[in-house]
Amino acid sequence: MNKFDYIAIEGVIGAGKTSLANMLAQKHNARVVLEEFEDNPFLPRFYEDRERYAFQTQLTFLASRFNQQQRLFEKDMFQDTIVSDYIFDKDRIFARLNLSDDELALYDKIYSIMSGIAAKPDLMVYIQCSVDRLMENIRKRGRDYEQHITETYLSELSDSYNHFFKHYTKAPVLIIRANDADFVNNPEHFRAIEHCIFHEALTQDRIYLKP
């Protein structure tokens, strides 16, 4: 049986990160760490006007994610494994996409200090999903401020995520093709993912899973 101290799950908005993190944590009595996006007061305004509110939104997320990362180092005597629905490194994906050159230069000075001492996962799970499926998931969950998200923005974000994980080397990456894996509603699909993570030998840098 695989023993990971820190499993991180990533994917574009609406890919199902939080659902999978909660399901795996419940199955294995793990400590779940979820991104605190609702605490960012600039996020609703960002989706209405990206250019105006991108910098404030990004710095708020950076500070929040870093504070959470520091708490990951705190041990829980009853729960050895941590499952999170994001990684600290994701912050720069959004920064590169949304900030101006001057803003990004300032952001990078702060990010470079924080990233060196942020927690690094033992296993990275990347949920890859089509833009159509992402839009459908976003509509279904019905968060008011997310209704301003456009297909164009999701497409840009998806391309950025794919590029990031193509070059990610800090941990093995398990890539789940979410268009073919309904792990929320299909127990067999979830069991296939859970078995791959906890019971199969993950010896490659990239593992593609399509239940």
TrEMBL record:
<dbReference type="InterPro" id="IPR050566">
    <property type="entry name" value="Deoxyribonucleoside_kinase"/>
</dbReference>
<dbReference type="GO" id="GO:0005737">
    <property type="term" value="C:cytoplasm"/>
</dbReference>
<dbReference type="GO" id="GO:0005524">
    <property type="term" value="F:ATP binding"/>
</dbReference>
<feature type="binding site">
    <location>
        <begin position="11"/>
        <end position="19"/>
    </location>
    <ligand>
        <name>ATP</name>
    </ligand>
</feature>
<dbReference type="Pfam" id="PF01712">
    <property type="entry name" value="dNK"/>
</dbReference>
<dbReference type="GO" id="GO:0019136">
    <property type="term" value="F:deoxynucleoside kinase activity"/>
</dbReference>
<keyword id="KW-0547">Nucleotide-binding</keyword>
<keyword id="KW-0418">Kinase</keyword>
<dbReference type="InterPro" id="IPR002624">
    <property type="entry name" value="DCK/DGK"/>
</dbReference>
<keyword id="KW-0067">ATP-binding</keyword>
<protein>
    <submittedName>
        <fullName>Deoxyadenosine/deoxycytidine kinase</fullName>
    </submittedName>
</protein>
<dbReference type="InterPro" id="IPR027417">
    <property type="entry name" value="P-loop_NTPase"/>
</dbReference>
<feature type="domain" description="Deoxynucleoside kinase">
    <location>
        <begin position="7"/>
        <end position="193"/>
    </location>
</feature>
<keyword id="KW-0808">Transferase</keyword>
<dbReference type="InterPro" id="IPR031314">
    <property type="entry name" value="DNK_dom"/>
</dbReference>
